[in-house]
Write a structure and sequence with these properties.
With 321 residues, the chain is an alpha/beta fold. It folds into 3 domains: 4-99, Arc Repressor Mutant, subunit A (Orthogonal Bundle), CATH 1.10.10; 114-186 and 291-317, 3-Layer(aba) Sandwich (D-Maltodextrin-Binding Protein, domain 2); 189-287, 3-Layer(aba) Sandwich (D-Maltodextrin-Binding Protein, domain 2), CATH 3.40.190. Helices cover 45% and strands 18% of the residues. It has 13 helices and 12 strands. The chain has helices spanning 4-13, 27-38, 41-48, 52-66, 82-108, 125-139, 152-160, 206-210, 222-233, 247-255, 269-273, 285-288, 304-317, and strands at 71-74, 77-80, 114-120, 143-149, 166-170, 178-185, 189-192, 215-217, 242-244, 261-263, 278-281, 291-297. Strands 4-3-5-12-6 form a 5-stranded mixed β-sheet, sandwiched between helices. A 3-stranded antiparallel β-sheet has the order 10-7-11. It has a two-stranded antiparallel ribbon with strand order 1-2. β3, α6 (125-139) and β4 form a beta-alpha-beta unit. α2 (27-38) packs across α4 (52-66) and α3 packs across α4. Pfam families: HTH_1, LysR_substrate. GO terms for molecular function: DNA binding; DNA-binding transcription factor activity. This is LysR family transcriptional regulator. Keywords: DNA-binding, Transcription, Transcription regulation.
Length: 321
């Protein structure tokens, strides 16, 4: 169990080119990371487009090389052992080191190559992130991007797992493993179509809002967490007219006049400026403090392309002064 030679061979095998082509991460580690992420060999095999038996063989090979069990088999999947958690941290660091290696090589070419992996909430994509990427790409056309849309919790977990470089979250919880490179204050406001009856009122309460058809994002969204907490605090039983995992759908239904909603202003700035939507502040302290949070992994040396895009993001979005 674990001779020096065996462990050296294992560490070397972690950085051998795998089935993915230009990934320097071995199949052993790729398969392990996917099983760890999914908690299921069957789901991991579907994502990797290989047979479950192939994934099982790779996991058994890893366990044989290390001399420890990496997962506990359970009726509904697998769960990492203590050794599995250690390997997960190691595998994340291997991936980040590989990304850094590519970045430093690319830096020799003066940002003519590189790749930036982004995670973002849906609300920031069309009115914020697409503009950031387009402007950056016009200056550095050789830099590629990957973008995944998810909720704030998924963004934090993805950054910590080394699956992305920069996260664009909404009202993220403080986390010692994350650095907030930029936080932009953007309160949650009532959002309606022009001419809605609520706009004629001098003051607004949550009870006023509950009297109209109300649209909510699903419970995985940070916005929903804040809205639910305020209705609970005021002992108001809200029956939403619509729940959705799409902020775009919610905006469209508010524009149509079917719904009202509570949203931050930045994702709907275009509609507000065009007069398609109207927002009103609400007298709710927790709503006044919400922020858009651009986050990276704490203490990670960023590859040059990632660092350049982060600087571009700060310069573009940071409020004056």
């Amino acid at each position: 169990m674990g001779s020096v030679a065996t462990r050296a061979n294992f560490c070397t095998s972690c950085c051998v080119a795998g089935n993915g082509g230009d990934e320097m991460e071995s199949a052993l580690i790729r398969y392990f990371r996917e099983v760890y992420r999914c908690g299921s060999i069957r789901e991991a095999s579907a994502n990797l487009n290989v047979a479950p038996s192939a994934v099982s063989r790779q996991i058994m090979k890893l366990e044989d090389q290390l001399g420890v069990a990496l997962f506990e088999r359970r009726p509904r999947g697998v769960a990492p052992t203590e050794a599995g958690e250690v390997l997960a941290r190691f595998a994340r660091d291997v991936q980040l080191d590989i990304t850094r290696l590519h970045g430093e090589i690319d830096a020799i070419n003066g940002l003519r190559r590189g790749h930036v992996r982004l995670l973002s909430t849906e609300g920031l994509v069309s009115h914020v992130l697409t503009g950031l990427v387009a402007a950056f790409s016009a200056r550095y056309p050789g830099i590629g991007f990957s973008l995944t849309i998810t909720g704030t919790a998924g963004i934090a977990e993805g950054i910590k797992a080394g699956e992305a470089d920069i996260g664009f979250a909404f009202d993220a919880e403080p986390d010692p493993q994350l650095d907030f490179a930029l936080q932009i204050r953007d309160p949650l406001c009532l959002v309606t179509a022009p001419g809605h009856p609520l706009l004629a009122r001098e003051t607004l309460t949550m009870a006023d809002l509950a009297a109209f058809p109300f649209g909510l994002p699903q419970s995985s969204f940070a916005i929903r967490r804040l809205i639910d907490a305020e209705f609970r605090r005021e002992r108001i039983a809200l029956q939403p007219a619509m729940e959705t995992n799409s902020i775009e759908a919610l905006r469209g239904l508010v524009r149509s006049g079917m719904l009202i909603a509570c949203l931050p202003s930045l994702p709907i700035r275009g509609e507000l400026d065009a007069g398609l939507l109207v927002s009103r502040p609400l007298p709710v302290e927790s709503f006044k403090l919400t922020t858009h949070d651009i986050c990276v992994l704490a203490n990670r040396p960023l590859p040059p392309a990632v660092a350049a895009f982060l600087t571009h993001t700060r310069q573009t979005l940071a409020p004056p002064g």
